[in-house]
Input
Amino acid sequence: YTWAENGQTYTSSGTYTNTVGCNTATLNLTINPLTTNGSLTTSACDSYTWAENGQTYTESGTYTNTVGCNTATLTLTITPSTTNTTSQTACDSYTWSVNGQTYTSSGSYSNTVGCHTEVLNLTITPSTTNTTSQSACDSYTWAENGQTYTSSGSYSNTVGCHTEVLNLTIT
Output
């Protein structure tokens, strides 16, 4: 502290006097040591509000906050958020490779890791089956798929989530 009364600089607490003629000035001085509140290194998505000063930062950098003799330092890394959206349709259920979960109903699902979010817009359609029995001599052409069969058996044709089953007897 430099006292304007006499121009002297003091570095320790104490009581100091300066007498000029009949005038005496007294200085009661308290010197506080400079302290560092600490440093914080952190990262955030898009923005970060520092509790030390209440300010919100949107760019990476090193920031300081000094209050009195106390200084705090923030080393900040800001990463912009990203999102990827996928639309998917499935019969009965769908297992999402992003998180390994199996979903059985339509909806919008999200998975966030770090600053990246994957969004799944999912449509689930219940499977349906229709079974038809037919008998024919020598061969049978199934209108469902245009195939001609010459032996008895059970045949299926699936389109989307619907399956047609043909139980065929050939004589």
Remarks:
- The chain has a mean pLDDT of 93.
- The CA atoms of residues 8 and 139 lie 117 Å apart.
- The first strand starts at residue 14 and ends at 20.
- The radius of gyration is 40 Å.
